[in-house]
Write a structure and sequence with these properties.
The complex is a heterodimer of chains A (about 300) and B (about 200). In chain A, about 75% of the residues lie in helices and about 0% in strands. Chain A is an all-alpha fold and about 300 residues long. Chain A has two domains: about 160 residues, Alpha Horseshoe (Serine Threonine Protein Phosphatase 5, Tetratricopeptide repeat), CATH 1.25.40; about 120 residues, Tetratricopeptide repeat domain (Serine Threonine Protein Phosphatase 5, Tetratricopeptide repeat, Alpha Horseshoe), CATH 1.25.40. Chain A is elongated and about 105 Å long. Chain B has about 200 residues and is an alpha/beta fold. In chain B, strands 2-3-1-4-5-6-7-8 form an eight-stranded mixed sheet, sandwiched between helices. Chain B is globular and about 55 Å long. In chain B, about 35% of the residues are buried. Classes of the chains: A mainly alpha (about 300), B alpha/beta (about 200).
Amino acid sequence: MKRYQTIHKKKAVLWGAMVLVTFALHAQSPVDRASRLAQSGSWWEAYDVLAPVIQSEPQRSDARAWFMLGFIEKELHKSTGESGAEAPHRVQSVASFEQALSMPALSTKDRTTAREALDFLSRTYFREAIDRVEGFTPGSTAEILGLMGQYEQIQSILNPRFDKSEQRADLHRYLGQAHAKLLETERHAGTSLERELFEGAVEHYGKSLEFEPDNYASQYNLAIVLYNHGVRQLKRIDHNTSMFELMEIQDHCVALFESALQPMKQAYTQRPERLETLKGLMTIHYALSQKDESDAYRSKIERILQKR
Amino acid sequence: MRSKTHFKATVRFRTLARRIVVCVLLGWCAPIGSSLAQSESLDETDTRAIMKANFLFHFAASNEWPTSSKNGNFNVAVIGSERLFEELVDKYAFKMVGAQPLKIHAFDDVESFIGVSNMHLVYCDPGGDALSTLAGALEGKPALLVADSEGALERGAFINFVAVGNRIRYQINADLAREKGVLIGNKIMSWAVTSTP
């Protein structure tokens, strides 16, 4: 009987403790509850607690609530593997951190953490943009530029003196190369896609030069894209090509070769001893039937090779 | 409670963030630099050879040849230009000129060509005395001599490639061709930059 009473007493204590814990949990603010859940790695539960009330007072005016939500959204972005410029958790995470940073009440510690988190998120945009350039497919340019735009926007918030020129020049040069690489595949020969790829390559190299006018690689690559496109047209000449068509193709190719000459000369001005540039000039002049100029660059190449 | 939780979360986050920043700086930049920073590669195809090969094919196909030349293969000799020979073989060998299949022959120089007969069209890359020697050797034969050198018409060529406005065009000595019994077609005449009527 005594034993039964002891067990019953213990049960009552346990029930009481549980009620107290439950009451204590409910007494906590959504931010505290979300924080506890986040600490245990329950990101979705934390999100469910905080997200629905973030626009309600007092959370709306609480810098730490926005900081916490940004943190939770960032973890959800990572765990869901979402991607793209409009990936919702990443977008909301950035917005939440930005909101937190705009509030003077945010502690110095949280402010530092929020800036680090934003920097991390911006780099995920950057990395994704580069990944998409590496696995480039026609039509993905807008998405790539969107991702890069997000990266730049966040970096500009973190550092108002952020200069995007160098990375933009690089991105456009990579996009130029991505377009040019697809141009090399014969499966696009003579299609409208081939024209789009060529125009895309020229446009991106041109934009790269707008950001960095003296970029050797962009100048050289632009010249090569223009020249190679002319050669590509010439290679399609065969026994079915009429004299009239031949003359038309030649006019078109000569225009491309002439356009290639200027960027190649600019590249040469920057690196006059570089063999690939000398070879480029020799070849373009040859294609333009400018024998003397072509021979002059050939002689330069021979002199450089003799010195080695 | 609140500050303790926040502190732990902050510390964990900062550690993670630092690791990520290091990864970004060390790991991510490397593949970007290595895989995307390569230069485009120049297409080294001989563009002038492509153009000249097509011109030669039209010279073969669009002129009226004497009846005595209309038997067997239509023979084209290429002297001193391996790349032109390769282009012709690649795209035009055994294509029909009237009822005759086109056959391409390569010669290193004029000397190695002397004594060869039955050629319809002879392209000679070297100019100067070598061209004059060749023109002399072809005298009396119904072979059309095509050149790509300064003053080639004066040295006995019928057609000479010239550069006009960065383009390849050609001059014709139609009188000389007529003497050999080859009637230059209207299509060929109309695209010539200069010609003797």
